[in-house]
UniProtKB/TrEMBL annotation:
Gene3D superfamilies (UniProt xref): Cytochrome P450 (1.10.630.10)
Co-factor(s): heme
InterPro entries: Cyt_P450 (IPR001128), Cyt_P450_CS (IPR017972), Cyt_P450_E_grp-I (IPR002401), Cyt_P450_sf (IPR036396), Cytochrome_P450_monoxygenase (IPR050121)
The protein, known as: Cytochrome P450
CDD domains cross-referenced by the UniProt entry: CYP57A1-like
Bilayer-spanning residue ranges: 7-26
UniProt organism field: Oidiodendron maius (strain Zn)
Length: 504
């Protein structure tokens, strides 16, 4: 009997092992695109991609792969990374964009009713949902959010004054993250989270969002695992703090709106108030779940992305004194000539060309997202970068790869040089470049919060450079900060000192 069991186990083991080797081999032999180059193991298994992402710097790996293999690179069986300007329109172009790949599924609960805008795999439902919320993120709404940004800018200024008086070294990325989170709290709920007040992430919210990125990024490589693992994920810690916080803020605002003495708050409404009013006007159109999901989306998608870009701005200014001086001079001149107020308005900040060039260059050289934005080729297939790719394959462009494309950005695409944007404008090439500028994504799934982030950055940077000088710690590398790619590519070890400026 025992011998019989042993024999069966061994047989099953041998057959299973053989299948694991033979299946990928057959799959590869039958693949009509087997000549598309890429790392050897990526031809047979998705494990190669998983391991490379786990290492935490896949954005750099992908750049190197394209340098070595050209415009189409295989990164897993039937999955291709693309670097081709025309392909951007084919894959992401408005009206005919390819649907999002199942990698995104792991960013939401497995129940499609709880899909966020970012993670929704159903293009039709996504466009219905997006139309409901778009007006709260439009340029005209944004101007109503200036006061929220000013509140946080002023508080960060206060914190930096205190730090400057002590002479202490700080983690710049941490403070910029506190700022970006609190601005999102203000714009969404008229109530900041309190990170700038406390100076720290007491409830582990930053950590919880990092953990979510780690989970979704890696499990997304094998998305079928999500339904099995999700029920066992911890329901405590930073995530539950955000859930509780969002629930509490919705209840407070709901109560306030019901009170006849208090139906209108002073000043422009925050996003949640707008959505709550839309819900009360037509609960079938804007549901409570919509409201909840959008508030959470703002926190998850809008805070780290902005703080990463702000860190990119300050790091590159601190390592490039000529850019730093040029920007500070532009701001000082504008202030002296009365062209900007204190605090600066968004409209005034638009009139500072070097500031705008610095923001674009920071988004270009260090995009907040560091993996390709994967899409599924529709059933009829598509020609991409000169190759016919069959339906069902996965293709995508990584912003890091696109932004280093020398045919678009010039031979110095690997270097920080904000002046390139002034040259692009002068040559009237802006619209052309937009076709391959991926910092905010592309097409129908482009970032809905782009205007909010531009508002935050355009207002914070001049206010800080007017009042403070920033100096990098000697131990911090000057050529490139270390980063960790978990979809968001967060900078690590960005230490510096802040000094109060002596006004001339
Ligand atoms: C510098 C700051 C930001 C950057 C670099 C950024 C980047 C991106 C990118 C690349 C995408 C497209 C992802 C894809 O196609 O896979 C995206 C989508 C999105 N972003 Fe942002 N984002 C920023 C700020 C914000 C802010 C402030 C908010 C909200 C307040 C926000 C909310 C969203 C949402 C909801 C989506 C999904 C849109 C959709 O699929 O319809 N983002 N963002």
């Amino acid at each position: 009997m025992l011998q019989h069991i042993d024999f069966s186990v061994v047989t099953v083991g041998i057959i299973g092992g053989a299948a694991l080797i033979i299946y990928p081999l057959i799959q590869f032999i039958l693949d009509p695109l087997r000549d598309i180059p890429g790392p050897f193991l990526a031809r047979f298994t998705r494990l190669w991609y998983l391991i490379e992402i786990y290492k935490g710097s896949f954005e750099l790996t992908e750049i190197e792969l394209h340098k070595k293999y050209g415009s189409i690179v295989r990164i897993a069986p039937h999955e291709y990374s693309i670097d081709d300007v025309d392909a951007a329109k084919t894959i992401y172009g408005l009206g005919n964009s390819f649907p999002k790949a199942r990698w995104y599924w792991t960013w939401m609960p497995p129940d499609p009713e709880k899909a966020s805008l970012f993670a929704d795999l159903n293009s039709t439902r996504h466009s219905i949902q997006r139309r409901k919320f778009a007006s709260s993120y439009s340029m005209s709404s944004i101007l109503g959010y200036e006061q929220f940004v000013d509140n946080c800018t002023s508080l960060l200024g206060q914190r930096f004054s205190e730090i400057a008086a002590t002479g202490h070294m700080i983690d710049m990325q941490h403070w910029l993250q506190c700022y970006a989170f609190d601005v999102i709290g203000e714009i969404t709920f008229s109530n900041r989270f309190g990170f700038l007040d406390m100076g720290e992430d007491n409830d582990g919210v930053f950590h919880a969002i990092d953990n979510k990125g780690f989970y979704s990024t890696l499990v997304g490589v094998f998305p079928w695992l999500h339904a099995w693992i999700f029920p066992f994920l911890p329901k405590t810690g930073g995530h539950s703090y955000i859930l509780r916080y969002t629930t509490k803020q919705i209840a407070i605002r709901e109560q306030a709106l019901k009170d006849p003495k208090n139906t209108e708050r002073e000043g422009p409404p925050d996003i949640m108030t707008k959505l709550l009013k839309a819900h009360e006007a037509n609960p079938n159109k804007v549901s409570k779940m919509d409201l909840f999901i959008m508030c959470q989306s703002n926190i998850g998608a809008g805070s780290d992305t902005t703080s990463i870009t702000l860190s990119s701005i300050f790091y590159h200014l601190m390592t490039h004194p000529e850019s730093y001086n040029r920007l500070q001079t532009e701001i000082d001149d504008a202030a002296r000539e009365g062209r900007i107020s204190d605090p600066i308005t968004f409209t005034e900040a638009q009139q500072l060309p070097y500031l705008q060039a610095v923001i674009k260059e920071a988004l270009r050289i260090h995009p907040a997202t560091g993996l390709m934005m994967p899409r599924i080729v529709p059933p009829q297939g598509a020609t991409i970068s000169g190759r016919f790719i069959p339906g069902g394959s996965t293709v995508g462009i990584n912003a890091w790869v696109a932004h280093r494309n020398k045919s678009v950005y010039g031979s110095d695409a690997d270097s920080w040089r904000p002046e390139r944007w002034l040259e692009i404008d002068a040559a009237g090439r802006g619209a052309d470049i937009e076709r391959y500028f991926f910092a905010f994504g592309m097409g129908s799934r482009t970032c809905i919060g782009k205007n909010i982030s531009l508002l935050e950055m355009s207002k914070l940077v001049p206010q800080l450079l007017r009042r403070f000088d920033f100096v990098l710690d000697e131990g911090v590398p000057r050529d490139k900060l270390k980063g960790l790619n978990r979809w968001f590519v967060k900078q690590l070890g960005f230490r510096g000192r802040v000094y109060a400026r002596r006004m001339k």
